[in-house]
Amino acid sequence: MIICKVIGHVWATKKEPRLEGLKLMVVQEEGTEKQTHVAADVVGAGIGEQVLVVSGSTARSIFRERMDGQVPTDMAIVGIIDSLEIDPTAK
Amino acid sequence: MIICKVIGHVWATKKEPRLEGLKLMVVQEEGTEKQTHVAADVVGAGIGEQVLVVSGSTARSIFRERMDGQVPTDMAIVGIIDSLEIDPTAK
Amino acid sequence: MIICKVIGHVWATKKEPRLEGLKLMVVQEEGTEKQTHVAADVVGAGIGEQVLVVSGSTARSIFRERMDGQVPTDMAIVGIIDSLEIDPTAK
Amino acid sequence: MIICKVIGHVWATKKEPRLEGLKLMVVQEEGTEKQTHVAADVVGAGIGEQVLVVSGSTARSIFRERMDGQVPTDMAIVGIIDSLEIDPTAK
Amino acid sequence: MIICKVIGHVWATKKEPRLEGLKLMVVQEEGTEKQTHVAADVVGAGIGEQVLVVSGSTARSIFRERMDGQVPTDMAIVGIIDSLEIDPTAK
Predict the structure, then answer these.
(1) A62 inside 8 A of chain C by CB
(2) What's the CA gap between A21 and A43, in Å, rounded?
């Protein structure tokens, strides 16, 4: 998983039918990379929150279990981070 | 998913038979990376449009459902972006 | 697999139900990249330890075998490194 | 898919038995990255040609259909590019 | 596949039980990146040798066929390179 911050929303009227109803959010990777991705949200994340994001077939597996069907996303927000405890001496 | 802009077309006469009939478009990642990829289009995207692109087995899963068969692509355009709302204070 | 150092913990109350009970640790890639990830721990790794981390569907496969179910993680700590022997002449 | 140029061949006598008989070619990514990979060729590509390359489980799926078995490659050349039409105003 | 050089060994006593008995080697990517990974060896590679390395579910598929079970690795050495023939005019 990667740690991201939710920074926005994306709207697409013309899309793969099975993406219908998904909340698609723009997330930005924390750390040195700062890359931007679009992830489907399943935990009710809001703008500005720090979240856990999974990629690839793992993102798809969430919807397979929840909706008993294929949802063509390769990224999903799976948790809202309450706290992050980094040991400075371990780095 | 990544946010890309459609910048061109690619033609290949000699190819894997199961790629036959696919519309293959050249897309460029938005943001700092600007990498170029080739993605199969299923939503009717045009040159210059901002699109949502999925990768890996997720791209393949789209065609499995649609055509009941294996299509050997690892990238697909799944949505045309109408609007992108980024919160400047969240970044 | 990548070689990482465990540098912290992450807590998320609001999360995908099937992540419940997993120990999620912050790991930092060794080497030039130094990227930070979050991985589910199955071997009892502690802060400061050097570990082996797997990604993608491989991480998920571990939980499929262990818990007979889908766990939506795309990264897992699968070993604690005792020693790493690099041949300086081979580099 | 990524756009690569075929730049060489690779020979390996000692290898996974199921790689036997595959034509393994060295390909170089076009664009800014210029990374080098080894891909199994299924379309008869030659040195200097621009090709379409798929990665991951998609590469493996090609051989599953063709040879009814597992071929342990994670990269395959699936098309020879005839022409690439990039719109300069779209970039 | 990527071209790597075998540069070392890694030992881990505390590990996922299904990694037991695997020979885990430290490999370094050739080319500009020089990233270090840990790969399971199935071809008897030695320190200093140039090898072909597969990633992701492809690495896991090798062990599924060989040992009829899941081995949680996402990287495997599948060939020892005898020779690499790069056409300088093609680059």
Answers:
(1) yes
(2) 14
**Chain A residue with minimal CA distance to C10?**
A84
Tokens encoding C29: 């890639």
Q: Does E73 touch chain C (CB under 8 A)?
A: yes
**pLDDT over 70 (residue D68):** no
Predicted confidence at residue A66, as pLDDT, reads 64
User: Rounded to the nearest 10 degrees, how much is the dihedral formed by the CA atoms of D77, D79, D85, D91?
Assistant: -30
Instruction: Indicate whether C48 pLDDT > 80.
Output: yes
Whether A59 sits inside 8 A of B58 (CB atoms) is yes
Topology of the domain comprising E2-75: OB fold (Dihydrolipoamide Acetyltransferase, E2P) (2.40.50)
Q: Which residues of D touch B9 (CB under 8 A)?
A: 84-85
Question: What pLDDT score was predicted for residue B33?
Answer: 73
What is the structure's pLDDT at A58? 93
- Is E54's Cβ below 8 Å from some Cβ in D? yes
pLDDT in tens, E32-78: 778 999 999 999 999 999 999 999 999 998 887 666 567 899 999 99
Write the DSSP string, B21-87. Answer: T--EEEEEE-SS---EEEEEESS---TT-EEEEEETHHHHHHHHHHHSS----SEEEEEE-SEEEE-
What's the confidence (pLDDT) of residue B31?
Answer: 81
DSSP, res A48: T
Any chain B CB within 8 A of the CB of A54?
Answer: no
Per-residue pLDDT of C50-86, as tens digits, reads 999 999 999 998 887 666 567 899 999 999 999 999 9
Option in E61, E78, E90 nearest D19 (CB) = E78
Fold of C2-11+21-75: OB fold (Dihydrolipoamide Acetyltransferase, E2P) (2.40.50)
Which of 2.40.50.220, 1.10.10.60, 1.10.1610.10, 2.60.40.10 would CATH assign to domain D2-80?
2.40.50.220
D83 min Cα distance to partner chain E (Å): 18
Query: Domain spans of chain D?
Result: 2-80
d(CA D35, CA A33): 19
